[in-house]
Amino acid sequence: MPGRTRARRRPARDRALRGGGALTGGADSSLGGPGETASRNGRLPAGLPPVDLGGVHLAGPVLNGSGTFDAIAAWRAFGDELVERFPFHAFVSKTITLAPRAGNPPPRLWETAAGLLNSIGLPNKGLEGFLAEDLPILARLPVPLVVSVMGFDRSELAELVAGVGARPEVALVELNFSCPNVKTGLEMGAEPSEAARAVANVRSLSDAPLIVKLSPTAAEPAAVAAAAAGAGADAVSLINTLSGTALDPRTRRPWLGGGGGGLSGPAVRSVALGQVAAVAQGVSVPVIGMGGVASGAHAADLLAAGATAVAVGTESFRDPRAGGRISEELAELLAQSGFSSRPDPAPRQPLHAKSPANRL
User: Fold this and answer.
1) Which terminus of the chain is more solvent-facing, meaning fewer CB atoms within 10 Å of its CB: N or C?
2) Sign of the CA dihedral running 171, 176, 178, 180
3) CA 172, 175, 178, 182: dihedral to nearest 10 degrees?
4) Which of 12-16, 80-84, 155-159, 187-191 has the highest mean pLDDT?
């Protein structure tokens, strides 16, 4: 918020950037290939714009969406090579809650013609389990760590922020206000006043920068983003999945175990572009854009719409190395287009014109 000052934990941030001792000694690894130079962020390609998120330096703008890339499981499945070639410039954890959650009953996924419906339900080990079991492993990744949290009320959210935000391994904290499968999160992010109260309630509990993940179903996402930033959020991210459902063709009853689910993938890309453009125009804090990013061109579109960084979600289900490929494509696209850093922002009005006549 204007005039707000707080101590910055630069040594901890630097340690997060260095990786605190990567899982495989990534400083000696390389993606290889022409024109690539080594970086501490998993040897992703040179030529990408560096990013500053609330004082945390990222060597590039490509992150993962929370819950779409399990770094611990991927490391166990693919071995050290995946960490040596870590596909993102920062890692965002799956959302954690105060108490452990089993998640929704199966089935949890339904592939659509242009995306994916999920009804995962935020399964996680809870705060204590995450801090004891997962954080020591994630802290060894060669990129800054973002921990996503979600409380069922403001007091739970406060306990989560205080718990993870005090850990030096954590570079940033993401407040998940947008998950459509958990009612409380949607309510926190649906109205500007609720979002502002939730952020203000936790802002003083941690020096770590706060990212607010917005709800795509809010009537005015730009107003919610502005309220969150005014209350102390250091960045905002959007969009999360759109609410949807799938029916069993035999019974015509909901297929997903949780009833409804969240739609992601190519089907939501246009929605993401419009909302990112609207939000970026109304806030001065960084915007992390996501929604259907499957190529460098898609990432460039979000940057042109006003995003500071982008996140890859559904595409990582298809290809765990998608983040690295998208970074390479984005770097090549920027070089071919003659951009020294990122595409020039596109004209705002055509991207999010509010007049119904403009949408006919």
Assistant:
1) C
2) positive
3) 130
4) 155-159
Residue 51: strand pairing partners: 58
Whole-angstrom distance, CA of residue 316 vs CA of residue 297: 16
What Å distances lie between residue 34 and 296, 299, 326, 330, 331, CA to CA? 18, 22, 17, 15, 13
Place of tokens 């101590």: 7
DSSP-assigned states of every residue in 263-311: EESGGGHHHHHHHHHHHHHH-SS-EEEESS--SHHHHHHHHHTT-SEEE
Which residues, including other chains, have CB under 8 Å from residue 189's CB and lie 6 or more apart?
Answer: 177, 178, 195, 212, 213, 214, 215, 218, 224
What tens digit of pLDDT does each residue of 278-334 get? 999 999 999 999 999 999 999 999 999 999 999 999 999 999 889 999 999 999 999
- In angstroms, the CA 50 to CA 41 distance is 11
Domains of the chain by start residue, with CATH: 10-359 (3.20.20.70)
Cis ω for the linkage preceding 239 (within 30 of 0): yes
Q: Which of 93, 144, 142 is nearest to 122 (CA)?
A: 93
Residue the block writes with tokens 């935000």: 165
Cis peptide before 107 (omega within 30 of 0): yes
pLDDT score at 342: 57
Q: Which tens digit of pLDDT belongs to each residue from 243-259?
A: 999 999 999 999 999 99
Catalytic, 179? Answer yes
What is the C-alpha to C-alpha distance for residues 59 and 88, in angstroms, rounded to an integer? 10
**CA-to-CA distance for 207 and 222, rounded, in angstroms?**
25
- Say how far apart CA 71 and CA 42 lie, in whole Å: 13
Of residues 47, 51, 53, 49, the one with CA closest to residue 31? 47
> Residue 12 contacts by C-beta under 8 Å, 6 or more apart in sequence?
168, 169, 170, 171
Q: What is the per-residue pLDDT for 11? A: 36
Helix (H) or strand (E) holding 156: helix 154-165
Active-site annotation holder among 120, 127, 179, 227 = 179
Residues 341-351: tens digit of each pLDDT = 555 555 444 44
CA distances from 92 to 35, 112, 135, 149, 245 (A): 28, 25, 12, 10, 26
| Angle, CA 114 vertex, CA 238 and CA 293 arms, to 5° | 40
